[in-house]
Design a protein that fits this description.
Blueprint (H helix, E strand, L loop, with lengths): L16 H21 L5 H10 L14
Helix pairs in contact: 1-2
């Protein structure tokens, strides 16, 4: 049994509309980052890309920069 508000499966079925949009943004950002930068992309970079909607930067994350 799936708890209230939880996804029924890994494809996002049963998510609220805003949660599904956010999931799609994260998946899209992850795919773009993995394709351009390889599999060692930090989660922080994927999250940044999902928020900004930009393509991955080839320099990756630089500590101390925002």
């Amino acid at each position: 049994m799936t708890p209230p508000g939880a996804s029924a499966n890994s494809e996002g079925a049963g998510l609220r509309a805003d949660a599904e949009r956010n999931r799609q943004r994260i998946v899209t950002a992850a795919r773009a980052a993995f394709a351009e930068l390889g599999l060692d992309v930090p989660m922080e970079e994927i999250a940044r890309l999902a928020v900004s909607g930009s393509a991955p930067s080839t320099g990756g994350i630089q500590p101390g920069r925002t």
